[in-house]
Specification:
alpha/beta; six-stranded parallel β-sheet; globular
Length: about 180
């Protein structure tokens, strides 16, 4: 089954808001595996066109830049939580004959969640790599003491039965064994 990696919103305007270096390192390790396997990778960049207070407002050009080396990989922009709000993404994936998308990036409770649901709705098999999908928000943001946002969203997606949720080590083990991520 042809796989592709969707890397969401790893942009200076988000990564500079708090220390997310552990998540970025996991994302980089997943990118390395996809490159070694010659599996397609696509980067998604969130650009806010209207909210001047947003850290991802288009006029704040240094903030909207992706902090990882995108190399030769395509970059698509979006202005809504789902990467599929840019119809060019689906066209590109279909052009690559992709059937299975893996998702990493930011923010788990917005763009990762919406993109995973949209991808499944569009007919793709979906794997979200939970520890490579982070957030700059905290339990205080939502006034929910003890909330682990990535774990909570990962559980919801996993329990849905529609999206496979794995950790980086599980992903690496499956790739090393040549096992499918999802039967």
């Amino acid at each position: 089954m042809n796989k592709a990696l969707i890397v969401l919103d790893v942009q200076r305007g988000l990564t500079s808001l708090r220390d997310v270096s552990a998540t970025v390192e996991k994302i980089e390790s997943i990118i390395t595996v996809f490159e070694r396997m010659n599996w397609p990778i696509v980067f998604i960049k969130h650009v806010d066109e209207q909210d001047e207070q947003s850290s991802l407002y288009r006029q704040k050009t240094e903030n909207i830049e992706i902090v990882l080396d995108t190399r030769q990989h395509p970059v698509f922009e979006k202005s809504k939580p789902s990467a599929f709000s840019n119809s060019e993404l689906k066209k590109w994936l279909l052009g690559q004959q992709i059937e299975h998308v893996c998702i990493v990036g930011f923010n788990m409770e917005y763009c990762c969640l919406f993109t995973a649901i949209s991808a499944e709705h569009e007919g793709f098999q979906v794997t979200l790599i939970e520890d490579a999908a982070g957030t700059v928000n905290t339990e205080d943001t939502y006034e929910m003491k003890g909330l682990d946002i990535p774990d909570f969203i990962g559980s919801i997606l996993n329990w849905s039965g529609c999206v496979e949720v794995v950790y980086t080590d599980e992903f690496m083990e499956n790739v090393a064994l040549g096992s499918p991520l999802k039967p």
